[in-house]
Each structure stands twice: as structure tokens, then as C-alpha cells.
Amino acid sequence: MFAYLNHRLSGADQEPVYDRRSIPDDDDPITQPQSDESDDSDEGEELHSRSLSISPATLANALEINDIHDRNGLASAHLNEFLTDLVQKEYVWKLKQCDIKQFISEVTGKIAETYGGSIPKEINKEVLIESLPTEQCFLVQIGHKVQSSSFIKFWQNYDVDGSGYIEIKEVRLLVKDYAQVAGEDISGYRLNRAIEQMMKDLDTNHDGKIELEELTQLMNVENNFMKNFFGRQLLHRKDFNRIFSHYDTDGQECLEKSEVMALINDILKHLETSGKNVPIPLLQKTYAQVMKICDVNNSDTIQKRELALLLSCFNLQ
Question: What 3-state DSSP class applies to 291?
Fold first, then answer.
């Protein structure tokens, strides 16, 4: 599979591929590639405006790095720097400057409103946290059927350093969130025992780290949605719409990183790993190669018209 992707990246590939700019009409299968000339209508296309939010793990990590847990709060002089760093850590793809400015404006506005219109020199820790648009704890999904894109996002939420594994320090965040959902307040000895138990339950190869496949024991992940399309000679418009809608979980009309990685993971589970989740290093490498080919407008997302090109990177037959 990687040999094929490398071939595509080299520009040497002359095989028929799906049209990179359009989805076929209903019942009109894709059989031939289209011209590779740029579409003038795409010039100056703006990214979809994003509603930015911060995951519990990213926030906890930022508070720890800035010693905010050990102090009363944050000096207002460092607020913009703190918020910029926070949102850039959460969103590893490139953000437009206006997105960052809007995020800072919204948070500072909430802080000022809490203090009656002006921000003091020292911002209370609780006020700071309450003013941030944080995501609901991911662990509320445990016990419910979880879509593959939510599963990948769950993983990224706790793999804070992007190592491809959830290590002890990150398991600590996971256990704390789990306790929060369960309505328990654990710390000290109880927290350490809970971490030990979780590692015992999930770390099946005893390497001191949790891998993606091991995490499935904690999650009720849906069956591979892409199984509906393997073995087909042709895909029609309704097929593309089904695939795109399934992985576009936030309805933003584009597939963001976790959603693209979920799609790739589901494809590779069939092609490469006999139904098991793909190791994160392999998934990350494949994602990077696929985006080089398929992200035609350099938006760090996959638009619907780019989905056909993405699928052509893999042999689904």
C-alpha cells in the first residue's frame, strides 16, 4: 500500500483515478480520471469557520505547564499568550489568524463579563476555566456505541504528546475523567490504585503503554462502516454521500484530522491488519501521505469533492 502511495506522490502514476474535483451523478460510476487543471471557482475559497473548543486533557496539560494549579490564577498580562498557545496545541492543523483572534476575543469577553466589565491584573483560576469553551468529557461515551471518528478523537484527546501511545501520565488524565463521569473524587492512593487497575486491564502486552487496539476494550466502537463498500467495482454519488456524511461527525462539510484518520483506519483495518486497529505510527504516516495527494486546496481538511481522490489511494475492490 505504501509503495502505491509513494508512486502517487512521485507523479509517475498514470492509472485511472477518481475525479478530484467532483462527485459523480446518481448512478453514474466513476471510470476515468478528469483533467488535472485547477478549477478557477476554487480560488480564494475560505475554510469553514470553526467553533473552537478545548479538550479536558489539553486544558489540564496547559494548567500544569503554567503552574496554574499551584497558584491562584493567571496574570492578565500573559492571558493572550496563554490562550494562543492553548488553542494551537488543541488544533494541530494550521489555524487562520482570525480564528485565533476570535477565540481570544470570546474568552476575554467572558472573563471581563464575570468581573463586571474589566479584567483584573490576576485572573482567578476558576474564572479562567469557566470562561473557556471546553468539550464534554470524552468518557461519557463509554458504554454507548461510538463512531470510529469519535474513537480516534478520543484517542487524540488523551495521547497528549502525540507519541502514538497513552502513557502513564496520560492514563492519569483518563482515570481522573473517568472518575468525574462516575461522580467520584479520587486522588492520592486511590488514584494510583485506579491507574494500576486500568493498566492491568488494558495493557495486554505489558509494555507500560496503551495502544489503540488495547483501548477498544474500554470503548464500544461501531462495526467498520467501510465494510459496506469493499469489493465494489464502482462507487456512485449516493455511496460518496453516505461515506462523507458518516465521517463528517460535526457537520462542518469537511473531514478534519480525526475524521480523516478514522476513515483511513477503517480502510486499513480491512486491507492491512485483518480487522484490528492500525498502529498509530502507521496511521499517522498514511494520513500524512494521503493529505499530500488529496488536500488539493491546502485546507488541512478533506472537502467532499476531494473524497473521491482519497478513496482512489486505496484498492477497495
Answer: helix
